[in-house]
Known about the structure:
Blueprint: H1 2-24, H2 41-53, H3 60-69, H4 90-100, H5 103-114, H6 125-135, H7 154-166, H8 174-185, H9 208-220, H10 228-239, H11 247-257, H12 267-275, H13 288-298
Amino acid sequence: RDRKAFKIMADWTAARAIEFLIKAQNPDGGWGYAAKKTSQTEPSSLALVALNAAGKTSAAGGGLAFLRSCRLESGGIGVGAMDKAGNWVSYAALLAFHALGAVEDEKGLADWILNYRDSAYRLSKEEAAEIAGRFRYDVTIPGWPWIANTVSWVEPTALLATALLHAGIDPNHRRIQLAVRLILDRAIKTGGWNYGVPFDRMDNAALPLPSAIALLALGTAGFDESEPALWQAVEFLAARPATELSTVALGWTILALKNIKAAHEKISALTAELRGRESGDGSFRGNILETALACLALGDFRFTAKGRTRLQ
């Protein structure tokens, strides 16, 4: 009975949030990070994914047109229509293209992401050794950067890997395998991740948001509690009071735990905290990204992949 009541409350919260997203759509079809602000790729894409998951398709045409207006000749997508360089936010557009069934857009963007490089190829052996000695991670493992041809970080690597997996890219594609290797290599030894530097003269502390996003990537790739780094991250996040997590971290954490069966019991406290943050207008702080993430976290949405990544 309690579980049924809990689900009804979560559904009601998500329904109000969905209505907020529908009303907040801009005339150009996109969404800004707040209502009536300039449309941007990331909030537009996640709003579309959330609306599609809720069966609300009226916004799809305008949203797809906006995302297509952001496409570059290179095939990538930047932070908005005025951005002339594709970058990490392509993860969100790929999720949206997949959700809306825009097959050609999805394939073109996935191909671009698979060829989107960091700076690992530019480093000499001496430079790589110096970085390994100081920061204690393997900079020669290619991942994904925030901006092309710069250093890879945990969050863009995990977000792009998750989006590719969800879009149906083979879990054993070399770029996915390398992304998983990078995430495992950057893990904090006491559990979780920070932005990507586990050591700098001393052990660095893990942070909730990158830990949640890295955990999501590993779970989507098919890893479970038998992977020490994954379960250490679950315990790190579970040990943090839900009240101390940002709304974005709460959303990504819930979505990550959905893919880890042994951690499902830890979800209810997080969803209760997330529900309690909804504003009277149905939004979460008036923020489109936070509201869309909350809809996905509180609903039945789950990131999936066709198979499991098996490191070679």
